[in-house]
Amino acid sequence: MLFGEYPVQVTCGNCCRTIVTKTRTARGFCTYLAAYIVCIVCCPCVLIPLCSKECKDVHHFCPSCGTMLGVYRRI
To answer: Which InterPro entries match (predicted)?
Structure first.
């Protein structure tokens, strides 16, 4: 199953319940690549990609048992 940036309905492989995933964002390769490019172009703005949700990976978790079900990577 391909996970996206929004919660999806799936059956958890751990607890076997049909759930809608909980999502959390985390810094990934895209975040650090964007920060590097911004640093070269305009150094004072380097923190913008590190704080922006649009540059971060999205981790999908089961709300019942807390198992990580998948990751959506920007790159």
So the answer is: LITAF, LITAF_fam
Q: What pLDDT was estimated at residue 1?
A: 62
Pairing of strands 57-61, 68-72: antiparallel
Instruction: Quote the pLDDT of residue 44.
Output: 86
Backbone angles phi, psi at 8, to 5 degrees: -130, 155
Instruction: List pLDDT tens digits, range 47-73.
Output: 999 999 999 999 999 999 999 999 999
Rounded to 5°, the CA angle 1-56-24 comes to: 65
Separation CA 65–CA 14 (nearest Å): 8
> What are 22's two structure tokens?
């909980």
Check: CB of residue 69 under 8 Å from CB of residue 51.
no
